[in-house]
């Protein structure tokens, strides 16, 4: 099995990347990371990641799940055509998709949360985005609705990683 993490080049939320990544790797799931660059990306808390590939190099079907990491830098991803293509293509392929913190807002903007239950880091803007995208907001740490997983922030990072493994392994 193979998972793709998508991170912002600056100010992704460290825990939302490193904790789930470690959980997936311990479960034997291969992990790759994509961003707008393959140069070093810096998390909000100073964590450093060198992505394996750029967003434009992603071939969605190569992955069992696409995971979008949140943080202050994440909203900028939503304006990128290559990001939206990845999300929409994965959705049309009926692939599993996960997003944490503010990132579920990006899934809503991409139009893939209509009719789904989801959670998000709660701000007026993020709640409005979920509603506009046709999602039902659920005030929980992690929400699994079919093949879509959403989580509400850094404190849910461990549960988020565990939910991803459970969904991938069918347990």
Task: Spell out the key features of this protein.
single chain, 171 residues, alpha/beta, Rossmann fold, 7-stranded mixed sheet, 3-stranded mixed sheet, 5 helices
What does this structure look like?
With 171 residues, the protein is of the alpha/beta class. It has a single domain, classed as Rossmann fold, CATH 3.40.50.880. Helix content is 31%, strand content 25%. It has five helices and twelve strands. A seven-stranded mixed β-sheet has the order 6-3-1-7-8-12-11, with helices on both faces. A three-stranded mixed β-sheet has the order 2-4-5. α1 (14-26) runs parallel beside α5. The model has no long low-confidence stretch (mean pLDDT 97).
**Uncertain parts:** none
Number of helices: 5
Going by CATH, the homologous superfamily would be Class I glutamine amidotransferase (GATase) domain
Number of domains: 1
What's a quick, concise take on this entry?
31% of the residues lie in helices and 25% in strands. It has five helices and twelve strands.
Helix-strand blueprint:
Layout: E1 2-6, E2 10-12, H1 14-26, E3 30-35, E4 41-43, E5 48-49, E6 53-54, E7 65-68, H2 81-92, E8 96-100, H3 104-109, E9 117-118, H4 124-132, E10 136-137, E11 142-145, E12 148-151, H5 157-169
Parallel strand pairs: 1-3, 1-7, 2-4, 3-6, 7-8, 8-12, 9-10
Antiparallel strand pairs: 4-5, 11-12
Helix pairs in contact: 1-5
């Amino acid at each position: 099995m193979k998972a793709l993490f998508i991170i912002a080049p600056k100010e992704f939320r460290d825990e939302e990347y490193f904790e789930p990544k470690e959980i997936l790797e311990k479960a034997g799931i291969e992990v790759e990371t994509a961003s707008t660059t393959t140069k070093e990306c810096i998390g909000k808390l100073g964590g450093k990641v060198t992505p394996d590939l750029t967003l434009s190099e992603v071939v969605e079907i190569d992955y069992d799940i696409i995971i979008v990491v949140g943080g202050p830098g994440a909203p900028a991803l939503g304006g990128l055509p290559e990001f939206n293509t990845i999300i929409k293509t994965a959705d049309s392929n009926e692939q599993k998709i996960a997003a944490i913190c503010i990132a579920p807002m990006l899934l809503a903007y991409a139009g893939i949360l209509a009719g789904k239950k989801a959670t998000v880091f709660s701000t007026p803007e993020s709640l409005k985005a979920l509603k506009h995208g046709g999602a039902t907001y659920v005030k929980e740490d992690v929400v699994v609705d079919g093949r879509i997983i959403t989580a509400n922030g850094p404190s849910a990072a461990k549960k988020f990683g565990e939910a991803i493994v459970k969904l991938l392994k069918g347990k």
